[in-house]
């Protein structure tokens, strides 16, 4: 049997992996998926394909590997040019989309991590920072249906898992990171994006995500990670 | 005939390697721009207004619209003035992705190494540890250079490209840090390809007057650490 020309190494719970999978699905690209048991049990093949950062996701197209999820998404859009357009066309809009994706990864993700791995007064401070970060992120959405406009685009793919994951973390940690007070439009987008067919049918099981998040938190507090 | 440029402004600072990036890119495209130099320790109204999220330089303002984040600005310059000069990003999608991958790597490793090394003194144990990390990163970049250049002068081939700009802009500070902790990083024995490349990069028309002198950066560091720039 012929090997599929596209192979993706990732992890079922990783926002970085899922955003690439969604890009592939939007383009209708068939791919072979390999789940990696991160962080402690990476496969030999993964380490061989990405010796530099040793991280997932790694996309292999016709034998050539690529890493860095946002870089991979742009590669997918550049290579499969027919069909769904993921990146905006206008250079200014592209710059804005890239800026906000970087902001989401640099500020929002780290804020979420800080909130779920702190406690007491430190956590209150982290929570404030997280709430501000999401309030700022909302600016990229404004009154649009999706970050990409009428259709989902690059920035939606980058952030979508947060719509699913933030409520789970909020439950575990008993805080509110995104609500009608700091980011009402973003909260509405959470509902809309999770209702998109492609997204709805490819999210990880909620209970598994909940358990994993709880487990990671415990591992952090016990010094394992 | 050159396309209508519009109004191009760049908010920056002479010492910032990140500011050097759009300056080199604009030079490559032959685009004239108005430079707004920030004073260290005091952010201008223009900067705060143009980059309210990070309040950092560089910021490119094109026809009144601000674009932030140096690597993103370089891509914007390449896409906007696509018919001027050579292409900064590689034309092949895979090569483009590789250039972007290594740029993420550069930004992850180099600025942090510089920031950690520059307040140290020669011989300190911490300097040894941080130096090892920088050596290791440069070693990987040496291999990347071999693969990307394919025997030509630059990562981008015959012309300076995106990854040349990303890494090249960091050279001035790497040289400054060499003087500060007295450890050789741009070592011909260890990374011959990169050392030869760095000389070609520095000599390039678009780069020559952009890169600050290492001695000036050493002096800048001294002032930074002594609190001279504090308000």
How would you characterize the overall build of this protein?
The complex is a heterodimer of chains A (225) and B (231). Chain A is of the alpha+beta class and 225 residues long. Chain A has 2 domains: 6-79, 3-Layer(aba) Sandwich (Glutaredoxin), CATH 3.40.30; 91-221, Up-down Bundle (Glutathione S-transferase Yfyf (Class Pi), Chain A, domain 2), CATH 1.20.1050. Chain A contains 9 helices and 4 strands, in the order βαβαββααααααα. In chain A, strands 2-1-3-4 form a 4-stranded mixed beta sheet, with helices on one face. The mean pLDDT of chain A is 95. With 231 residues, chain B is of the alpha+beta class. Chain B has helices at 17-29, 45-50, 70-80, 93-117, 125-149, 162-168, 171-181, 192-203, 214-225; strands at 8-12, 34-37, 59-62, 65-68. In chain B, helix 4 runs parallel beside helix 6. Chain B is globular and about 55 Å long. The model of chain B has no long low-confidence stretch (mean pLDDT 95). Classes of the chains: A alpha+beta (225), B alpha+beta (231). At the A-B interface, strand 4, helix 3 and helix 4 of A face strand 4, helix 3 and helix 4 of B.
| Net shape of chain B | globular
Q: Estimate the mean pLDDT confidence of chain B.
A: 95
Distance between the ends of chain A: 41 Å
Query: Which fold name fills CATH's third level, the topology of the largest domain in chain A?
Result: Glutathione S-transferase Yfyf (Class Pi), Chain A, domain 2
Number of helices of chain B: 9
| Strand residue content of chain B | 5-15%
Percentage beta strand of chain A: 5-15%
How many structural domains does the protein architecture of chain A include? 2
What share of residues of chain B is helical?
A: 40-55%
For the largest beta-sheet of chain B, the strand count, sense and barrel status come to: 4 strands, mixed
Oligomer: heterodimer
Radius of gyration of chain B, in Å, reads 18 Å
Protein name (chain B): glutathione transferase
Keywords (chain B): Transferase
Domain GST C-terminal (chain B): 92-220
GO molecular function, one term (chain B): glutathione transferase activity
């Amino acid at each position: 049997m012929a090997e599929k020309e596209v192979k993706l190494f990732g992890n079922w719970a990783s926002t970085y992996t899922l955003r690439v999978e969604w890009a592939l699905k939007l383009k209708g690209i068939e791919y072979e998926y390999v789940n990696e048991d991160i962080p402690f049990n990476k496969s030999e093949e993964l380490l061989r394909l990405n010796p530099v950062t040793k991280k997932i996701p790694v996309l292999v197209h016709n034998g050539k590997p690529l890493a860095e999820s946002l870089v991979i998404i742009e590669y997918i859009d550049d290579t499969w040019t027919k069909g769904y357009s993921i990146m905006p066309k206008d250079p200014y809009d592209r710059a804005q989309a890239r800026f906000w994706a970087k902001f989401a990864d640099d500020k929002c993700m780290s804020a979420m991590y800080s909130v779920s791995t702190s406690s007491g007064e430190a956590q209150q401070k982290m929570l404030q920072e997280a709430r501000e970060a999401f309030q700022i992120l909302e600016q990229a959405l404004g009154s649009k249906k999706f970050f990409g406009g009428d259709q989902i685009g690059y920035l939606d793919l980058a952030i979508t898992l947060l719509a699913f994951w933030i409520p789970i973390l909020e439950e575990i940690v008993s805080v509110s990171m995104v609500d009608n007070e700091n980011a009402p439009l973003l909260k509405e987008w959470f509902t809309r994006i999770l209702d998109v067919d492609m997204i709805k049918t490819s999210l990880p099981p909620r209970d598994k995500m909940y358990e994993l998040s709880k487990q990671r938190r415990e591992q952090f507090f016990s010094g394992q990670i | 005939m050159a396309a209508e440029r519009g109004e191009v402004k760049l908010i920056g600072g002479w010492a910032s390697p990140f500011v050097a990036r759009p300056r080199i890119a604009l030079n490559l495209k032959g685009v004239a721009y108005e430079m707004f130099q920030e004073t260290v320790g005091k952010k201008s109204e223009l900067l705060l207004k143009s980059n309210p999220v990070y309040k950092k330089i560089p910021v490119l303002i094109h026809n009144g619209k601000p674009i932030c984040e140096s690597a993103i600005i370089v891509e914007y310059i390449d896409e906007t003035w696509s018919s001027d000069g050579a292409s900064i990003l590689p034309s092949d999608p895979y090569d483009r992705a590789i250039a972007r991958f290594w740029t993420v790597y550069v930004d992850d490793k180099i600025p942090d190494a510089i920031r950690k090394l520059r307040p140290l003194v020669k011989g300190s144990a911490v300097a040894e540890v941080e130096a090892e990390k920088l050596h290791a990163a440069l070693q990987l970049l040496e291999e990347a250079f071999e693969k990307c250049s394919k025997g030509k002068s630059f990562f981008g081939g015959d012309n300076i490209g995106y990854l040349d700009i990303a890494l090249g802009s960091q050279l001035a500070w790497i040289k400054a840090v060499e003087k500060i902790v007295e450890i050789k990083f741009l070592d011909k024995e260890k990374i011959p390809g990169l050392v030869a490349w760095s000389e070609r990069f520095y000599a390039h028309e678009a780069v020559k007057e952009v890169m600050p002198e290492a001695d000036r950066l050493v002096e800048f560091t001294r002032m930074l650490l002594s609190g001279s720039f504090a308000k």
